[in-house]
Amino acid sequence: MVHCPGKTGVGTGKGPFLLLLGVVGTLIALLALLVWWVPSFGLANIHPELPRWFGLGVLVVAAVLLGGLGLLALTLLTGRDLFFFPRLRGLAFRYLLPAMIGIGRLLGADQEALQRAFIALNNQLVRARKLRVPADKAMILLPHCLQWFDCAIKVTGDIEKCARCGRCDLSQLADLARQRGITTAVATGGTLARKLLVEKRPRLVLAVACERDLAAGIRDAWPLPVIGVFNTRPEGPCFNTRIDLTLVEQALDEFILPVAPGNGGHNEVKKP
After folding, report:
1. H or E segment and range at residue 74
2. Which one of 56, 61, 150, 166 has the lowest number of neighbouring Cβ atoms within 10 Å?
3. Which positions ≥6 away from 84 have C-beta within 8 Å?
4. Cα separation of 169 and 167, whole Å?
């Protein structure tokens, strides 16, 4: 699979995702027609108007689903947040997108490509909100596989446990976090990640992980804004993974407010 990194190191994978949108939209339209057509023969025997009302209900449901797919496609193509209502955005991310990825799996689509497109879409939506938060209200969440596998110190939770030996990227990330004053934690799985988010209550999260974990984490953290950055896996998944520190710094520059001189480190911020 070709990886074309974007501003936060996320390949958009628009082609497979847009193709899947078209396939799912067609399936929804055909299913709606079938659901309306089959019962209509018997419903008329109960009441003459029942097929019409049943068909109207099917049409409304199909229109909502197709409208959601259309907004996803347009958002992916334009890079703008076209979900005008937060509830609608939440329904699309929590239910519609996971359902699409599941359908893509059944159809034999490339799961990593679909997950990359999902994360790129998420990043576009977060970016469209023009969020800028102070460092003490942001959090960097890292996977444990970034740590060197043979390290005697198992860094979980607080990254300051890192011995700074330089064998893996955690030492540089720990130094970057200290310089920027940003809480940074290492999570061994989704349960610990959710626990850290509940305890720290950040306004913005920069998460580093593989496609699968990022996609799952973004859904679990909703409606908390999460920017996803992929790690690289030169030695295979979940083993001595790496991260391009430049991508992390670019994301921090984009979303984290610098300390204002003479303001005691406090900044006005647009709440997410």
Report:
1. helix 50-78
2. 150
3. none
4. 7
Are 143 and 206 found together in one domain?
Answer: yes
Cis? peptide before 48, omega within 30° of 0:
no
Distance of CA 249 to the CA centre of its chain: 19
Is residue 165 domain-shared with residue 209, that is, in the same domain?
yes
Q: 153 and 176 share a domain?
A: yes
Q: What pTM value is reported for the model?
A: 0.69
d(CA 241, CA 231): 6
Q: Give CA–CA dist 42/54, Å, rounded.
A: 12
At 269, list the tokens. 């911020």
DSSP secondary structure, 121-163, as one string = HHHHHHHHTT--EEGGGEEEEEEGGGS-TT-SS---EEGGG--
Please count the helices (runs of H) and the strands (runs of E) in the chain. 9, 7
221, part of any domain: yes
Same domain for 144 and 252, yes or no, is yes
- Residuewise pLDDT in 10s, the chain (272 residues): 333 344 455 445 667 777 777 787 788 788 777 777 766 666 666 667 766 777 787 778 778 777 777 777 777 677 676 666 666 677 777 777 777 777 787 878 788 888 888 888 888 888 878 889 999 999 999 998 988 888 888 887 778 888 888 888 888 898 888 888 898 888 888 788 888 888 889 999 999 999 889 988 888 888 899 999 999 898 888 888 999 899 999 999 999 987 555 444 444 434 43
Helix, strand, or coil (residue 83): coil
